Amino acid sequence: MDKKFEYTTLAQRYTARFPVLTYVGIQVNFWIIANCLLLTILTLHARLINHVVQIPVAAFGPSLLIAILFGGVWGVSLGLTGYYLDRKIARKRSLGNVILVKTGGMLILLCLIFWALQFILFDLSTTSHVNIAGVILKKETWGLVSVLLLVYYFFMTLIISFINQINKKYGPGVLLPLLLGRYRNPKEEERIFMFMDLKSSTSTAEQLGHIRYSSFIRDCFADINEVLFPFGAQVYQYVGDEIVIMWPEREGLKNYICIRFYFACTEQFRHRTGYYKSTYGFLPTFKAGMHTGKVTAVEIGEIKKDIAYHGDTLNTAARIQSVCNHYQKDFLVSGHLITKMDLDQRLKIESLGKILLRGKTEKVEIISVDWRDPEDLTNRRVEFK
Q1: For a designed S-S bond to 316, which of 121, 203, 237, 291 qualifies (C-beta 3.0 to 4.6 A apart)?
Q2: How far apart (Å, rounded) are the C-alpha atoms in residues 256 and 290?
Q3: Cα angle vertex 50, ends 47, 52, to 5°?
């Protein structure tokens, strides 16, 4: 297993087990780097001026410590706020709106912090100046420093929020390998792919109308996304009313995670019965096909970049899903995938024999899979370790 694969898998595991800590930790790292960058720029600028006009330059060591501590505290504050804002309001607002709300909240909080520091350092003090890291600051100087930091933090918040959204697009552990050029040339990987498609989508669209149908699909995908991290799943694509899920093969086979994911999604919908029945009149039902094998991953596109996977594995998984209606089954997998697992008594499998899928030259064994105890899925959801 190569290093990129290990890093991505580790990031997936850590995010699945500690979602809040992961999110906050990323923000802390970003803000510590941002503060150290600002300190470096200011120090170099001060030393440059010092060659022309003799002015005191702040000691770099104490200033660096202050920058790291403030970056850590600030990162934790914004990280916790951002995490809960994303879960509460981000789904119902546009990306630009979310970024502006976060940035506006940051500016208000920062103004309150600077006002409180000014009040403590100058208004409550009997002296007209304070000594910070070897530099004497007056009240007027502090005002200029506050404005400088407000402007800098405003633009850094926009940049960091943008980076967070890019990281969300590709998923945990993918952005760094992408930046390092991992996918510039095709790379072969062993992956499991699952194609999940809404059953009776045509009649559902006719019944709801295209506006409500789009809201219905959005809500379905949002509920499926709630199940992704606990089962180490990654979204490859959204295509109309179909969602394509994938796992690194080694991880997806552990504890039947790739199998259990489908039934956990079904349980997720069942727990939201009240919402779906009151809003749309019925529960969503998805059919799925799954297969595993070798694929190639490569970065494609110039106008719109993405990571694409190619290979017979995807075609086979899609074809398996397409015969669900014919066999009146909701979940079909390839016999090749089942042979890679140690069968468990919790799995209820039924072989449908070898069939010739559309576009294939060789027959593929198809197996219907069910889970004997659905409650076991919800009681033991987080097992991606």
Answers
A1: 291
A2: 13
A3: 130
